[in-house]
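Structure ticket #2291
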Amino acid sequence: MPDEDPGKQNWYDKVKLSIVTTLYRSSPYVREFHRRATAVAQELVGQDYEIIYVNDGSPDDSLAIATQLVQSDEHTIVVDLSRNFGHHRAMMTGLSHSKGDRVFLIDSDLEEAPEWLRLFYSEMDGTCDVVYGIQNRRKGGTVEVALGWAFYRVFRLLTGINQPDNIVTARLMTRRYVNALISHQEREINIGGLWIITGFNQRALIVEKKSTSPTTYNFSRKLSHLVNAVTSFSSLPLVFIFYFGLVISAAAVAYMLYIVGRSISGSPPPPGYTSVLVSIWFFSGLIILFIGVVGIYISKIFIEVKRRPYSIVRQVYSHDSLTTKGP
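Resolution: structure written out below.
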């Protein structure tokens, strides 16, 4: 059998650029995203690129569309997860499958333009490992903007991690940064915090994010995201519980001394059951709250020690596998 063309056979061994994105209810956008991402990749690196789609258990036909793209484009790879694991875990899975010297992570819903890659590419030099986008103003209504504003400030206050306001998914990264990023072994992933604590020289660029699809993050999911983010990167809430308990204990001792003093001086303590009941309810609520905070940390320990994979890949679709075996 004659040898295959070495240039064609090994293009994936010398990938200069990987474009990584996730699929979840993305069927209206996949084809246009692919067309635009392909155009800008070829403009920058010629044929030495790959586009990786991670199907995060999408309930629509995103996977079918993506596999069609694989059949017609040898630069396309689809990583199909066994179920929906969540946006952050899907992104980390995609990054772990990338091979490029530079890796461009972006959402596929076209709110983040694939053409940003040109700008990010031009900004990355020998001293910079990450170029990422931030919005001047968060998209959405007044409530959504206010919740976003509060999230970043609470996160920074409780974790000490200086995550910029209104950061977007889109970012261009060097291979050494990506290797360091995916070396984190958390099962409960908050990728925004991992981006920061991984370090290296990172540079922010102002971008304008469009609004093409409704957000899947309602208030309860945002609150859950905040709790997960804080408890993943900080033990400060546990420290707060200690000092709050210390203050309450000191106040209780002071009030007890006050009652004893009044009794010794012949002045009986003020009567009334209402204040007693309010105090019982108040402190009972605090106890339950604090037990809940401790419980969250214990649950994270429980999850981490089991060492379950943060995602499970059902199948990886590549051009060679589909053209050899059929769809």
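Closing remark: The first helix runs from residue 6 to 9.
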